[in-house]
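Researcher: Let's do a round of design. I'm pasting the structure tokens now; please hold your answer until I've finished.
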């Protein structure tokens, strides 16, 4: 089962323009019932870019990427992907980090 808050390596290759286009970590943001019954999941990519975290991003604690670097969830790059694009599971975001992701999603989506 793929669960909300889990972080996977996702193959974004085949994207165009300003879309994320390489293999990178992403957090599953779609709800669990969707993840259980549909062929797709909605993900938000992670980036290890340094600097100020924007309102449509959420900070992630060091260590989630497995190399000790802090990361950010790019909620403005949401994407529905086929489950076949998911590769290795990296871990699960802590509850506090997911709360930050939810707040960032509300800002990005105007909710």
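Researcher: That's everything. Go ahead.
Model: Designed sequence:
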């Amino acid at each position: 089962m793929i669960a909300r808050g889990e972080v996977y390596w996702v193959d974004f290759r085949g994207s165009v323009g300003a879309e994320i286009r390489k293999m990178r970590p992403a957090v599953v943001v779609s709800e669990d019932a969707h993840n259980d019954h549909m062929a797709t999941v909605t993900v938000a990519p992670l980036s290890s870019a340094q600097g100020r975290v924007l309102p449509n991003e959420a900070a992630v604690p060091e260590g989630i990427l497995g190399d000790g670097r802090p990361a950010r969830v790019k909620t403005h790059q949401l994407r529905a992907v086929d489950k076949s694009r998911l590769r290795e599971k990296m871990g699960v975001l802590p509850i506090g980090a997911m709360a930050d992701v939810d707040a960032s999603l509300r800002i990005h989506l105007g909710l």
